[in-house]
């Protein structure tokens, strides 16, 4: 039966590339769905009249593309979110564009509050667009922006001898990983982790090694165990961790540094995506012994989400390789965007605007965490734009909130080994609205069991 069912999905071919291409088409067309198990190597080889070695090579191609996951004796299955775009299918529920008409507030999208961002129009009017986009020297980064980036990194104790500009935080993370790693390498990540990190590792054929986080960041015992077992890289978020909102405190930072010190060859990638609006001071696990590293700061959370620019400090080799990969692809980050970012960062009002935004986000996080605690529901939200709410089951709470006009994200896509939870983005949640959201969560969570105090 298994062979007949898989034959109907359209996996065909006689060479590894042909088999992999047909399987990719089946995944793209959704004939093979997320999580679906593929035939065993021997079963598919018999079905196609080819050798097990050929099918094994095809499956390896699919793994390296991030389309499938190999799970040993459990077989090979389609990745939860394959690294390709599937055609859009009609859906029963109304799309998000209709949320406003339905009276649904979006606490799922994770973007900053537009009212707390600086005025792009005024800054754009002040820059010389023609000078910014001249062909001469176009493939180099804006020297003024590099100078500002270096000064900001150094002010936080991060070496800035080598600094570069990339097209957003994930562009930077991807280029750093590509510069040093190969398919099959093991990468330490947080659990729960931002969805795109997991998807990126799948797409690059890298193996995720999850380490649980609490309010203060990575758990030291699990961190030590992962390092001892062997990882080639670690991708971490020192503050505003998404989705849990954790931030290193000084004690945790020192403990993790000490554990990392005997592993100077581990590639350390720090994603400081929220930066000055995170509501927590800068932290880093960098030491003088760290050989390969990058600290990446996006501007999307405090300048504008459409400014696809991130600033990166790193060791000489890493920055050189990242710039080399850029030269092979997009060649440069838009100089108009670079000049605009530099102008916004130079603005005398920037510091007060970003400080105000950080204070507002802190108040909104605190209001929701307190409202949940008042109703006997625990949550996490020490920094950043999100609050993580552990729940017994995700779907009933998500559904109840949506019925009441609040869209949040179920935690399933974020977590690997951690229990169920919800991610609630507080960027646009007014302090006065926290009680309403908390009451709905509590009403579902406490249904059929006594309340607990937190």
Question: What brief labels describe this structure?
Answer:
alpha/beta; three-stranded antiparallel β-sheet; eight-stranded mixed β-sheet; 14% strand; 17 helices; globular; 454 residues
Topology diagram in text:
Layout: H1 2-8, H2 16-28, H3 41-48, H4 52-64, E1 68-70, E2 76-78, H5 99-102, E3 105-106, H6 120-126, H7 129-132, H8 143-155, E4 163-166, H9 169-180, E5 186-191, H10 195-204, E6 207-214, E7 217-218, H11 220-229, E8 233-236, H12 250-260, E9 267-271, E10 293-298, E11 310-314, H13 316-328, H14 335-346, H15 350-374, E12 386-390, H16 394-403, E13 406-407, E14 409-410, E15 421-425, H17 434-445
Parallel strand pairs: 3-13, 5-6, 5-8, 8-9, 9-10
Antiparallel strand pairs: 1-2, 4-11, 6-7, 10-11, 12-15, 14-15
Kindly describe this structure.
This protein is of the alpha/beta class. It has 17 helices and 15 strands. The protein has helices at 2-8, 16-28, 41-48, 52-64, 99-102, 120-126, 129-132, 143-155, 169-180, 195-204, 220-229, 250-260, 316-328, 335-346, 350-374, 394-403, 434-445; strands at residues 68-70, 76-78, 105-106, 163-166, 186-191, 207-214, 217-218, 233-236, 267-271, 293-298, 310-314, 386-390, 406-407, 409-410, 421-425. The strands form 4 sheets. Strands 4-11-10-9-8-5-6-7 form an 8-stranded mixed β-sheet, sandwiched between helices. A 3-stranded antiparallel β-sheet has the order 12-15-14, covered by helices on one side. It has a two-stranded antiparallel ribbon with strand order 1-2. Helix 12 (250-260) links the parallel strand 8 and strand 9 (267-271). The relative contact order is 0.12. Mean pLDDT is 89; it is low at 1-7 and 89-95.
